[in-house]
Write a structure and sequence with these properties.
The complex is a heterotrimer.
Chain A lengths: L2 E2 L15 E2 L7 E4 L15 E6 L8 H10 L25 E8 L6 E8 L8 H5 L6 E4 L4 E3 L9 H5 L6 E2 L6 E2 L5 H4 L6 H5 L5 E5 H17 L6 E3 L9 E5 L19 H7 L1 H23 L7 H12 L2 H4 L1
Parallel strand pairs in A: 1-2, 4-13
Antiparallel strand pairs in A: 3-7, 4-11, 5-6, 7-8, 9-10, 12-13
Chain B lengths: L10 E5 L2 E4 L3 H25 L13 H26 L7 H8 L1 H6 L13 H23 L11 H31 L4 H5 L2 E3 H7 L1 H11 L6
Antiparallel strand pairs in B: 1-2, 2-3
Helix pairs in contact in B: 1-2, 2-5, 5-6, 8-9
Chain C lengths: L12 E5 L3 H4 L1 H14 L2 E5 L12 E3 L6 H14 L5 H7 L12 E2 L2 E2 L2 E2 L4 E2 L26 H9 L4 H8 L3 H12 L8 E5 L1 H4 L4 H15 L9 E3 L6 H6 L6 E2 L3 E2 L8 H6 L17 H13 L24 H9 L5 E5 L3 H4 L3 H9 L3 E6 L26 E6 L8 E4 L4 E5 L12 H19 L5 H4 L13 H9 L1 E2 L3 E2 L7 E3 L17 E2 L9 E2 L2 E2 L20 E2 L27 E3 L4 E3 L67 H5 L9 E6 L13 H6 L4 E5 H7 L6 E5 L4 E9 L5 E3 L2 E3 L1 E5 L34 E8 L6
Parallel strand pairs in C: 1-2, 1-8, 2-3, 8-9, 12-13, 13-14, 26-32, 27-29
Antiparallel strand pairs in C: 4-5, 6-7, 10-11, 15-16, 16-23, 17-20, 18-19, 21-22, 24-25, 26-33, 28-29, 28-33, 30-31
The chains are: A alpha+beta, B mainly alpha, C alpha/beta.
Chain lengths: 324, 227, 811
């Protein structure tokens, strides 16, 4: 007999050995790309979040290797280009990346090495999903996870255009777009993401979003006690909040952390493109086509008259041209 | 020999009845390639443009194939149009007559032919289609390459990509409108289609719509044996 | 570690100096994170580079490589000057009050009795004044000018904040801030932990670096307490087990010594190992040495070891030199004095200094046998890999055999972690191809060898022929059998010491622990400190109960910790002289009027009276040693010494080069540079992405840190015209390497003795084998010299130079 997987939380222990029923079903999809009329789900899963406490991160890249192992990706062997980031950017084979920033704090005069784990933020209002033209290629579950369904992906890269965080990467091999899945396959059976499981300092934790926010508040209190007056949560409301949230020592300046957007939102251009433009454009084309058909039906076509032929004949045979 | 209103190759095919060669086979073939690619581009493009039309990708063998094919079709279109453009640009430069013609657009629609100026090979409407297409294709080409994920993923920044997608969509819609105009005008003006099928028009059609062109072609033909 | 990894969560202040815990021990570092998050603990990092550990530290200060003693003595000086001393602890639990012989002294950077010719100290006067009863004289008031405390005060007086700034390059304000943070931990209810690793050991005075911190911790009263201690973070998962089992030329299991030449018989050997207590009532646990060694010899030779033949003592090899450490062995090899080298689980071509010399040495062998799961650089030292291993295979006649072994995950057994926990693990995978367990290989070699001795005889076949080999499958002793042998068993019925009629343990039964060991041949035990790991109750190392009453971090039912499952050494010192916890919230064990009890296994006889028996049971004094008596070759107190290759002269005495008593071979001395030729300070270190030279064989790790680089400051880069990511050549007097340049704000030039000192940081993880890009290691550059006491090579401070190259050999 199988039991349904528990509500997901940071995997502190190993999963049970017996198989479990999956707890993240197609019917839990609340939004899907290019599928405006999705049936409402019959239940609401607890909203989850991955909390990345930047102040606890030691940049060890265990999250990166866990991500590679779990997703069985094969990032290629690169070279050193004078930085610690390897691979040098997110790739279709590297869904998460430690980004290192050297910062001389003008207030304290202290040097700080800011290390941020980059990856999909799992926006409540995902720009990728909005931009995606392929039905069901990008879905959002009621627990907040935004997932790419690769069999539906057409590789157009619109998600890249739509994402306010520069996350999706389209593979040169299978021409499908890849990014962090928040380990939806693990979450489905009650496990936290692989990166959270591997993180040695528990800088990455995972669970219900309200619990994560409460935990973040504790961390912020600790950081404030250590002199980080501007410590705070990064849960940007411009995209409706995110399901990957940061604790930052300098929450007043997110962009210090390797260009984390200060106020991310889906670009008005993308909003326009996927909103009014879509309707107006199609309407214009439809109206024009219909107008043409109606005109064709209702009006008299412009026919060449026998007189025109005679005139032409006359012209060709000479003389007529003088009259015209 | 004057050639203000006609192409060098335009000639009378026969004088009884009068038949005028308007487009050579090469031009016609190119036109139909352009037409076909435009239609395919619109079908595939619309599939990406609106969820309701995504099913059109089935015509191409699915979303991946449609996504792959679309930009190449675009290149074919652009190349084809470039040839047409070079070939026809001289006859499509605006002239004084065009202003008069536009001013009398109502008469065009009401078929008050006598109130209209006599015209060369193209009227202002045709010229509009020519130039609109040229401009829109240029826009589509530029913006299309900017968002061509497979080959130029890093050509422009993501903010610029957002401009490009919007430009691409808007230009495509406009091109669709121009396309409808072009097709409908060709159908409404009876006797036009054969110019692009058989390559010739009747003398009456030429007299009625492009009299200066006919005169010039006929004048050039004088002295040659009729066929 | 005196404490355990899990115990670090109890600390108030962690100081990471001489290590980079977050980088090299990320999983253990979690407990620092716990302490910070749950207790509000602070973290200090002192390192030449702003490391990954520094990135999460509350306070960071730079230090010039190789100047740690000056820093630590500076802190001690500051603590004494500012009254930041745990007086009760110092007076009762250290040798502060002990009177030292008049002959002991220090001047101009040297202790008394220095023989420059032989490079040794005469240590005769480095001792206590003894009374007629044989006990050391003390002055509990600490007012006698010859008491250790007075001598210490004098000794550290020169290490002023200005001296520290000038010598270490640490800005004075940063140094003083750290002193204040450390000083707070002199309070009985504030505890600091020290976490160090190879950043302290890989110096020619490594042992003294650690001594410095041990002394500071004694002064602060932080040893034996939860959240305190001096904690060596071991690099390999089982390197602690390696030392415990005595895998060194001069040790046998359980930190017993291999005899030396002049110890011609057992009683001569034992005559210097009586370990009589130097103060009344003290435990001096090494008094049991005879039990340990006899039980060990019984484990080795069974019935062949008898009282009549001194327990087969004469079977043991006798050392003609202090030790055949790696440096001496390769020195001999380079001279052609070694024919066969069995290299098991080591990659010396990358992990020992002066690679050119290593290649030369290996080339002179007749046979090299490498037992390793991976294709190591050592096994392929003869292969030409262009500039990455520029040798001429035709000129090398060494025959090389590679014996593929299993790796840890394909094997069953125990690993000993830094906290002395023996954790049993089970095989997780089947060995690939022809890989065999090391035990199988060794057993097969042994049995063939024994047959040869049997058939052909030999000069002295007895130790081989009589070796106990009673395994079920002689060709493959099982981990279980070996573990049981380590634990030991009764060879005859054991009776209660007070009631000889009461049978305690029948013959053939597993010992409960080493308290049951006998020196009459009735017990055998392969490694006394491991005794208790596999008792009649079964495999204690395989226990996995993670309950932890009152969250003390002890986890007594998880695996087994030596000795006796004790989690914190010297835990008696967690209570005051009367047996009450210094800090009630940090109670560990307490005296209840009749016995010691609490959360941990008491590190003292459970009925030893608190006022009588002092906590440091392994010392003859019963107390912690601020003055190290005769223990170390290079002084009873740490004194500042420069590295052998230093950018500045020793400020205490410009004539002293490096550690004045470190052994240096003549050829190597000739290869040591001065700062005039090589102005830059090189230092080596590890990266989180890799484990030594193993993980470069793994594609994932290789992708995460693919290529060899060095780190330099923006200032040095500007001076030399080096671009970020550009290729550079780095060279020392011993070799040259090429690397990519990581130009960083995390390294800053320092001002020492009025000179600008630039540091070049070099990670160690690249070679010419494996999945990563081909590269080099700092060992091509480093000097062939080790610590004066234990010969750990000086990898952390040496001289080099750097220049940009247009088109280097790297990918």
């Amino acid at each position: 007999m199988t039991t349904r997987a528990p509500e997901p939380t940071t995997a502190a222990a190993n999963p049970p050995v017996q198989p479990m029923e999956v707890n993240l079903l197609p019917s839990d999809v609340v939004r899907a790309s290019a599928m405006p009329n999705l049936p409402a789900p019959d239940r609401q899963l607890t909203k989850v979040a991955k909390l990345i406490d930047v102040s606890k991160c030691i940049g060890c890249k265990a999250c990166q290797s866990a991500c590679i192992e779990w997703n069985d990706t094969q990032p290629e062997l690169g070279v050193n280009v004078g930085v610690y980031e390897n691979p040098h950017d997110l790739t279709p084979d590297m869904f998460t990346l430690m980004r290192f920033t050297e910062y001389e704090n003008p207030q304290t005069g202290d040097f700080e090495w800011l290390i941020r784990k980059d990856g999909c933020m799992h926006c409540e209002d995902p720009g990728c999903l909005k931009a995606c033209p392929a039905p069901g290629a990008i879905v959002q579950y009621s627990n907040g996870i935004v997932d790419f369904i690769h069999e539906n992906c057409i590789g157009c890269g619109y998600c890249v255009t739509g994402c306010p965080f520069d996350i999706p990467r389209v593979s040169k091999v299978d021409h499908k777009s890849y990014k962090c899945t928040l380990c939806s396959d693990r979450v489905a059976v009650g496990q936290g993401p692989a990166c959270a499981k591997a993180c040695p300092t528990q800088c990455i934790s995972f669970g219900p979003k309200d619990e994560m926010l409460a935990h973040a508040e504790d961390r912020i209190a600790d950081l404030k006690a250590r002199g980080y007056e501007n410590a705070g949560i990064y849960d940007p409301q411009g995209v409706g909040g995110t399901h990957v949230i940061y604790v930052l020592h300098h929450a007043d300046q997110p962009s210090l952390y390797a260009g984390l957007p200060d106020d991310p939102q889906i670009s008005p251009l993308v909003q326009g493109w996927k909103g009014p433009a879509k309707t107006v454009g199609l309407a214009a084309l439809g109206l024009a086509a219909a107008g043409a058909v109606l005109h064709g039906l209702l009006s008299r076509p412009n026919r060449v008259q026998p007189e025109d032929e005679m005139q032409a004949q006359a012209l060709v045979n000479g003389g007529a041209e003088d009259r015209a | 020999m004057t050639r203000d209103y006609s192409e060098a190759g335009d000639h009378l095919i026969s004088t009884r009845p009068v038949l005028v060669s308007r487009y050579r086979w090469f031009t016609r073939a190119n036109h139909w390639i352009i037409a076909a690619t435009t239609i395919l581009l619109m079908l595939s493009g619309l599939a990406f443009f609106h969820p309701a039309l995504f099913g059109l990708t089935a015509l191409f063998g699915g979303g991946q194939m449609a996504r792959w094919l679309h930009p190449f079709l675009g290149l074919v279109l652009a190349l084809g149009y470039l040839l047409i453009f070079i070939q026809l640009v001289a006859r499509n430069l605006p002239r004084r007559d065009d202003v008069v013609w536009v001013k009398h657009f109502r008469d065009v629609m009401d078929q008050n032919e006598e109130k209209l100026p006599t015209l060369g090979k193209y009227n202002a409407g045709q010229k509009f289609v020519f130039w609109a297409m040229a401009g829109l294709i240029l826009l589509l080409l530029g913006s299309g390459i900017a968002i061509w994920q497979e080959y130029f993923p890093d050509l422009v920044t993501i903010p610029d990509r957002r401009i490009a997608v919007l430009v691409h969509a808007a230009a495509a819609v406009l091109m669709g409108l121009v396309f409808i105009l072009h097709v409908y005008a060709a159908i409404w003006t009876r006797g036009t289609l054969r110019a692009m099928t058989r390559g010739s028009v009747t003398g009456g059609w030429a007299w009625r719509h492009h009299r200066k062109w006919l005169r010039e072609v006929a004048g050039r033909n004088r002295g040659k044996p009729a066929k | 570690m005196t404490n355990s990894w899990t115990d670090i969560k109890n600390t108030d202040l962690a100081i990471v100096m001489g290590g980079n815990a977050a980088e090299a021990h990320p999983c253990g570092f979690k407990w620092v994170t716990e302490a910070k998050a749950k207790r509000g603990a602070k973290l200090i990092v002192v390192d030449p580079r702003f490391t990954r550990t520094a990135s999460v530290a509350d306070y960071y200060a730079p230090i010039r490589p190789g100047s740690d003693i000056a820093f630590l003595m500076g802190v001690i000086n500051w603590c004494i000057a500012n009254g930041k001393v745990q007086w009760e602890y110092v007076k009762n639990y250290t040798n502060a009050s002990f009177l030292v012989k008049e002959g002991f002294g220090w001047s101009d950077g040297l202790f008394n009795g220095y023989d420059a010719e032989k490079r040794v100290y005469d240590t005769a006067d480095w001792d206590y004044q003894l009374g007629e009863d044989g006990f050391a004289l003390t002055d509990p008031t600490l007012s006698d000018p010859r008491c250790v405390w007075a001598l210490l005060k004098d000794h550290v007086a020169i290490y002023t904040p200005d001296f520290v700034e000038n010598t270490c390059g640490t800005p004075k304000d940063r140094f003083l801030k750290i002193c204040e943070m450390i000083g707070e931990c002199a309070a009985p209810d504030r505890v600091m932990t020290s976490m160090y690793a190879l950043g302290w050991t890989q110096h020619s005075k490594g042992a003294q670096n650690i001594r410095g911190m041990a002394m500071l911790q004694l002064i602060l009263g932080n040893i034996g307490l939860r959240g305190g201690g001096v904690n060596a973070l071991r690099g390999h998962s089982n390197i602690q087990g390696l030392t415990d089992l005595g895998l060194m030329s001069n040790l046998i299991p359980g930190y017993l010594n291999i005899p030396v030449d002049k110890e011609v018989d057992f009683e001569t050997y034992m005559s210097t190992r009586g370990n009589a207590p130097l103060r009344p009532n003290q435990t001096s646990y090494w008094q049991n040495y005879r039990k340990f060694i006899v039980s060990f010899l019984k484990a080795m030779w069974g019935d062949a070891a008898t009282a009549e033949n001194d327990w087969a003592y004469h079977y043991l090899p006798k050392l003609d030199v202090p030790s055949y450490d790696i440096l001496r062995t390769f020195e001999m090899m380079a001279k052609g004095e070694v024919n066969l080298y069995f290299c098991q689980g080591f990659n010396p071509l990358l992990s020992f200094p002066n690679r050119a010399k290593l290649t030369e040495a290996l080339s002179k062998l007749k046979l090299l046998v490498v037992m390793d799961p991976l294709q190591t650089e050592t096994a392929h030292f003869w292969e030409n890999h262009g500039v990455f291993n520029d040798v001429d295979p035709a000129a090398i006649q060494t025959e090389v055999l590679e014996l593929p072994t299993t790796c840890f995950a394909e094997d069953e057994g125990a690993l000993v972690n830094s906290g002395r926990w023996l954790q049993w693990h089970w095989a997780g995978a089947t060995p690939p191809g022809q890989a065999r367990r090391d035990c199988w290989i060794m057993a097969n070699i042994f049995l063939r060898l024994r047959d040869l001795y049997r058939v052909e005889g030999g000069k002295f076949p007895d130790p081989i022929l009589n070796l106990t080999w009673d395994y079920a499958d002689p060709y493959e002793p099982s981990p279980e059998e070996l573990a049981k042998e380590m634990n030991g068993r009764a060879l005859a019925p054991l009776y209660d010491a007070t009631d000889p009629t009461k049978l305690v343990l029948d013959a053939g039964k597993q010992l409960k622990n080493f308290s049951q060991l006998k020196d009459d041949g009735s017990t055998m035990c392969g490694c006394w400190i491991f005794s208790g790991c596999w008792t009649e109750e079964g495999n204690m190392m395989a226990r996995r109960d993670n309950t932890d009453p009152d969250d003390t971090g002890a986890y007594l039912n998880w695996a087994f910790a030596w000795p006796l499952n004790r989690r914190i050494l010297y835990n008696r010192a967690s209570a005051d002289i009367h047996g009450k916890a210094w800090d009630p919230t940090r109670k560990l064990i307490e005296w209840d009027g009749a016995k010691w009890a609490g959360y941990d296994v008491p590190d003292i006889g459970v009925t030893s009276k608190p006022e009588d028996v002092m906590p440091f049971i392994m010392t003859n004094e019963g107390v912690g040693k601020l003055f190290a008596r005769k223990g170390l070759k290079d002084g009873p107190f740490p004194t500042h010494m420069e590295p052998f290759e230093s950018p500045i002269d020793n400020p205490l005495n410009a004539a002293i080069r490096g550690n004045p008593v470190a052994r240096v071979f003549p050829d190597d001395l000739a290869q040591m540079a001065t700062s005039a030729e090589f102005p830059l300070v090189g230092t080596s270190y590890r990266l989180t992405e890799h484990f030594h030279y193993w993980t470069k064989h793994n594609k994932v790790n290789a992708a995460l840190q693919p290529e060899f680089f060095v780190e330099i400051s923006e200032e040095l880069a500007a001076e030399k015209g080096i671009a970020k990511g550009g290729q550079v050549r780095i060279w020392s007097k011993r070799g040259q390497i090429w690397a990519k340049a990581v130009v960083t704000k995390r390294i800053k030039p320092m001002i020492c003795a009025g000179k600008t000192v630039h540091v070049v940081g070099m990670p160690i993880h690249w070679g010419f084998m494996g999945a990563a890009q081909k590269g080099f290691g700092p060992n091509s550059l480093t000097p062939f010299v080790g610590d004066a006491n234990i010969e750990t090579p000086e990898f952390k401070a040496f001289l080099c130079n750097i220049e940009p190259v247009e088109k280097g050999p790297l990918a």
